[in-house]
């Protein structure tokens, strides 16, 4: 999965936000491009991310976005948005397994960093 998202996003000139929707066995159901942004921000609508998970009957999600600067360190805005998605998804028993930030310098996993 990391090789795929790294290849798809690491060199994009603008932020992109994608969601991997998973079934109850954690098998990928759908990967969707949810937002395009600027060089340092992509608008993420929590309601739309969770609504789509419900439409697909997804049991879990992995959030993915890039940092065009190359530095994959999560920003405060990234952390806050992820917290909001987790809280909204929890109401519907949908898990957020991870949020991966990709940049030319590598990637960072919220789970590995202890942020989830």
From TrEMBL:
SUPFAM superfamilies per the record?
Answer: JAB1/MPN domain (SSF102712)
Q: Which PANTHER family does UniProt cross-reference here? A: DNA REPAIR PROTEIN RADC, UPF0758 PROTEIN YEES-RELATED
Q: What is this protein called?
A: DNA repair protein RadC
Q: Which UniProt keywords apply?
A: Hydrolase, Metal-binding, Metalloprotease, Protease, Zinc
**Molecular function, one GO term:** metallopeptidase activity
Pfam families tied to this protein: RadC
Q: Which GO BP terms, alphabetically?
A: proteolysis
Could you tell me which residue ranges the MPN domain spans?
1-116
């Amino acid at each position: 999965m990391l090789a795929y998202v790294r290849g798809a996003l690491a060199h994009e000139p603008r932020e992109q936000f994608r969601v991997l929707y998973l079934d109850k066995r954690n098998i990928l159901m759908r990967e969707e491009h949810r937002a395009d942004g600027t060089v340092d921000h992509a608008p993420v609508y929590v309601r739309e991310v969770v609504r789509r998970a419900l439409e697909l009957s997804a049991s879990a999600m992995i959030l993915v976005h890039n940092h065009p600067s190359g530095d994959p360190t999560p920003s405060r805005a990234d952390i806050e948005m992820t917290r909001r998605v987790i809280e909204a998804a929890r109401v519907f028993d949908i898990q957020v397994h991870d949020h991966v930030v990709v940049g030319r310098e590598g990637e960072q996993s919220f789970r590995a960093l202890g942020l989830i």
